[in-house]
Structures are given as structure tokens and as C-alpha cells.
Write a structure and sequence with these properties.
The chain is an alpha+beta fold. It is built from 12 helices and 15 strands. Helix content is about 30%, strand content about 15%.
């Protein structure tokens, strides 16, 4: 009997050293290289802060476009711009989209303000990391002050709506074509509003707080400068007539905005328990309905903003999160990112993406809010999702199909398995990841 036990122990010792601690079962996808195209759906932050954001349009294409524009100016120094919105006119088919995007943003903020009171949101005290759950994760990705003394561990505190979705601000332009830039001396006199609201205003949304100039005739381009021959009186009369026509109920809201999200005070008052499984069925149904409508508003806002960005130019700094909606970026010397001394504090403007216009704040996906914290050793196998999607999914909304691969739903972490070699010897093998 003693010889049999010794032989079994020697068999266990012959197993790979990695198998003594944990046994990894994974598919071919997880065995691939992290830089494989299959991992492209999981967003990764820049490795260094000194690196510039990737260009949306390749530099060669931008240079070729600038050369063509220069040749057109030489061939025809004075020409009338015909295509909107470059000629100062609105794009008719995007006016309704702008109204829907603005209404969807309002509904999104209203829904998130209710959900964050039920689903806890954690944010790091020293960096921009956000986590959805009762306890913060243990993944060492903090890059804030004195992160080296904490071994890059995050220090969590309670977050809010502004941590779930981030709307960067930009300068409001009264005339996006006639005066597309804001000078450094005008930085205090020009108001700053959320960039997505400014995008809706330039696309046709009218707000009393933020007046803007509307034209009825296209402008001229004389040697690269914008000139309009419309008199001030005609412009004012056309503006009043245009506003009167726009007040007609021609813009129909989309199907998700027919029933706007209303604040449900009973939902927060009835939620006296700590975990979701302790809620009553009625409160849970209200929470699920609210999360579904909030998620629909999110998709409505993102899809509409993408359509508008295809026509209206949005610029972002290549090194910092600054955004400016308009043909050109502003000239305010406020950049504090890498190499700002070489630019005298000016931003390095380039074409922006939808993530620059609306910060989704990607967070690690958690299967169970009551489960253990995410381990740093398994961060390669965890998925990610926008904080809005993660929050709504935990509140009861269905998982969107476009985020299933990003959330890594095919990976099951931390499953224990009991293997009995002999009655006297029992080997516990922990399967960290199993597909």
C-alpha cells in the first residue's frame, strides 16, 4: 500500500508545475497572441501618454486632399460653395437626427440618475478607472499619483452619472463658417457646452440659451477665405422666417422617445436592500424596464451622432481629451499633454471619433455583483464593455449582440474541480478559465 501511495505522489510531481497550482483550459482564441485581430473588439488604452492618438484618415490621404484643394483655389480663386454644411447651410436630412440625439441624451441622463442609486458605481480616487459593482476590482492598472507605492492598486470610492458616461465640453460657435475659431483672448467670453450638444446645435437644433446664426444662401470662398454677400437685414428676416417654419411639428421622435423616461421615485424609495436578489418582483420589473429604455436611448444617441459626424467636422487633440466641434480647432493655449511646450500650449488637432465625442468609459465586465473581486492574474481573460451597457445589463436589460464578444461571455473563470487519485490522496485543481 505504501508503494502505491509513493507511486501516485511521484505521478503528481511529474505533472507540469503550472498544473499544481491551476489548470488552464481555453479555446484557440484565448491561446492566440494578444495582438491578434480577434482581440480588436476589446479596447486597449495607449501604452504611453506621449504617444499620439491614431489618425482616423491616413496622413497620405490628408496630404492628397490638401493638394487637390490648393489646385482648386488656383484654378478658381472665387467660387461659391455648394455642398452643405461647408457653405453655411444645414443638411436637411440631419435636422431630425439632431433633435433625436438631443432628446436621447436627455433620456439617457434621466435614466442613469435613477440606476446609479440602485446599482453601485465605483471610481478610483487617483485615476479615471470606473467599475460597476459593490466592490472594486483588484486589477493593477492605476496610473495616478503615487501608484508605485500602491503597486498600481486602485483606491475606490462611490461614483456617479458623470463617471458612467463622459461628455467633454467645447466652445460654442455662434457662426461656425464665418468665425470658426476661438482665440486665446476669447476663452473667458465664449461659453463651453457639451460637445454633443454643440454638434446638435450646428446640425439644426435651436436652443434659446445658445443662439447660432442660420443662413439661407450659400457663402463664397475667395482665395481660401469665407465671404458672404448677404445683407444683415435679409439675414435677420430669413432667420425669423426660418425659425417660424421650424416651429411646425414636422420632427417626429423615434419609437423609443415616444414614451420618455420619467423619474421613478418609488423605485429608489422601495430599494432598501443591499443586493438585487433581495428586491421585490415589482421593483425588479421596474428596474428592468428602466434599464432597457436607458440602453435604447444610449444606442439612439450613438447611432445618430455617428451620422452627424460624417457630415459635420469634429476635431480632437492628438494628446489630450479636448474636443472642438467645427471646421477648425480653437487657438486657446490650454493643452498640458505631451510636447505642449513645443506647440506653445496649442492643441494638436486631428479628426475625432465617436469615442472622443462621447466618452464610453470602458469597464471590466463582472458576471456576478456579489462574487469575488476580479483578480489581476486573470485580466487577460476578462472582457470589457461601456459603463452604460454594463450598468444596464446588471439592472436587467438584455445583453446587446454587438458587445457579446467584447464582454467575453464564452469564458467561465474560477471553477473548482475535485480529482480523487486514491482514497488517501485528494487533489484539488482550480480551473481558472474554461470555455
Amino acid at each position: 500500500m505504501r508503494a502505491a501511495i509513493v507511486s501516485e505522489i511521484s505521478l503528481v510531481k511529474r505533472l507540469p508545475r503550472r498544473l499544481n497550482k491551476s489548470l488552464f483550459f481555453s479555446s484557440e482564441t484565448l491561446q492566440g497572441d494578444p495582438d491578434d485581430p480577434l482581440y480588436s473588439d476589446v479596447p486597449k488604452p495607449r501604452r504611453k501618454k506621449t504617444e499620439r492618438k491614431p489618425y482616423v484618415t491616413p496622413m497620405k490621404v490628408l496630404i492628397q486632399g490638401a493638394k487637390r484643394e490648393r489646385e482648386i483655389r488656383k484654378a478658381q480663386p472665387c467660387r461659391m460653395l455648394e455642398e452643405p454644411p461647408d457653405n453655411g447651410l444645414l443638411v436637411p436630412e440631419l435636422v431630425e437626427v439632431a433633435h433625436r440625439v438631443y432628446q436621447a441624451r436627455q433620456s439617457l441622463l434621466c435614466g442613469l440618475s435613477e440606476l446609479v442609486q440602485v446599482i453601485p458605481v465605483q471610481r478610483c480616487r487617483f485615476c479615471n478607472e470606473v467599475h460597476i459593482g459593490h466592490f472594486g476590482h483588484e486589477i493593477r492598472t492605476c496610473a495616478g499619483p503615487n501608484s508605485g507605492f500602491r503597486s498600481a492598486m486602485h483606491v475606490w470610492r462611490r461614483g456617479g452619472v458623470q463617471d458612467v458616461v463622459f461628455f467633454p465640453k467645447c466652445f460654442h460657435l455662434y457662426d461656425r463658417v464665418g468665425k470658426p475659431r476661438v482665440g486665446h483672448d476669447e476663452r473667458r467670453s465664449v461659453r463651453r457646452i457639451p460637445a454633443i450638444v454643440e454638434l446638435c446645435i450646428q446640425a439644426g437644433l435651436d436652443l434659446k440659451k445658445y443662439p447660432t446664426k442660420r443662413r439661407t444662401k450659400p457663402v463664397y470662398c475667395i482665395e481660401g477665405r469665407i465671404v458672404e454677400f448677404e445683407s444683415v437685414i435679409e439675414a435677420d428676416e430669413a432667420k425669423r422666417k426660418f425659425f417660424c417654419e421650424r416651429n411646425d411639428p414636422l420632427v417626429k421622435p423615434s419609437h423609443i422617445l415616444i414614451k420618455p423616461i420619467k423619474k421613478t421615485k418609488n423605485l429608489v424609495m422601495e430599494n432598501q436592500s443591499k443586493f438585487l436578489d433581495q428586491l421585490s418582483d415589482e421593483v425588479r420589473n421596474k428596474l428592468g424596464d428602466l434599464s432597457r429604455r436607458t440602453l435604447d436611448s444610449w444606442f439612439e444617441m450613438i447611432s445618430g451622432a455617428k451620422k452627424i459626424v460624417e457630415k459635420y467636422t469634429v476635431n480632437t487633440c492628438g494628446y489630450c481629451p479636448e474636443v472642438q466641434v467645427g471646421p477648425k480647432g480653437h487657438k486657446v493655449r490650454m493643452c498640458k499633454a505631451s510636447k505642449h511646450q513645443q506647440r506653445d500650449g496649442l492643441h494638436a488637432w486631428q479628426q475625432a471619433t465617436i469615442d472622443d465625442l462621447v466618452g464610453p468609459n470602458y469597464v471590466w465586465h463582472v458576471r456576478d455583483l456579489k462574487g469575488p473581486a476580479l483578480s489581476n492574474n486573470l485580466k487577460r481573460y476578462y472582457g470589457k464593455a461601456p459603463a452604460v451597457v454594463e450598468l444596464c445589463v446588471h439592472a436587467g436589460a438584455p445583453i446587446p449582440d454587438q458587445y457579446r464578444s467584447m464582454m467575453r461571455l464564452d469564458v467561465v473563470p474560477r471553477v473548482e474541480m475535485k480529482l480523487t487519485l486514491l482514497p488517501e490522496i485528494t487533489l484539488f485543481i482550480e480551473i481558472d478559465n474554461m470555455c
